[in-house]
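Collaborator request, handled under Task 6.
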Amino acid sequence: MTSETDNARYDGVAILVHWLTAAAVLCLFVMGTTMTSLRPGSALQFQLYQMHKSVGITVLGLTVLRVLWRLGHRPPPLPQTMPLWERRAAQAGHLLLYVALIGLPLLGWATVSASPLNLPTLLYGVIPWPHLPILSTLPDKAPVAKALAALHDAGAWALLVLLAVHVGAAMRHHMVLHDAVLRRMLPRFGSGDRGRG
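C-alpha cells returned to the collaborator:
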C-alpha cells in the first residue's frame, strides 16, 4: 500500500535543478583538482580555469533559482517516523549546502577579481563576466587573492564533506530504513517506483 509520504515528491523544477547542480558540482571538483595539478601557465590549465569559472557561476545561478523556487513551493514532508533531532539535522544540512553553493562561487568570483593577473572571464567562451569592482581596483592584490583562494579551497573541501554526509544520509534512508526520502528527489521514469517502501 502506498503511503501519503510515498506520493509526496519534489516538483519537476526542483528535481531538475537539484541534479543539474549535482552534476555541475562534480565537474567543478574534477576540474579544480586537475587544473591545480597542471603546469602553471599551460594552455590546458587556462582552458580549465575558464571552464571552472563558467560552471561555478552556473552553480551560483542554479542555487539562487532553487532558493527562489523553494520560497514559493513547499518541499514534501519528511517521514513522520523521523525523530526530531534527525529532522533538525536535515534542515541544518540543507541550509549549509545552500550557503556553500552560493558562498563558494562568490569566493571564486572574488578570487578572480583580486587576481594580479587581471585575466578576463568569458562564460563558456562567449559571455563577458565582470570583475567585482572593489577587489579589481585594489592597489596590492596579491595577498588578498591568496587569502581568498585559500578560503575557496577550504570551502571546497568543506562542501565535499557536506555532500558525503548528504549522500550517506540519503542512502541510509533508501537502503536501511526503506522509506521514500531519496525517491522524493529521483526523476520519475515510469510508474515502477510507486508503492515501494
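The cover message to the collaborator said: "The helical segments are 4-7, 12-35, 43-72, 84-114, 133-136, 141-177. Confidence is low (pLDDT under 50) at residues 1-7, 190-197. Please let us know whether this matches your experimental observations."
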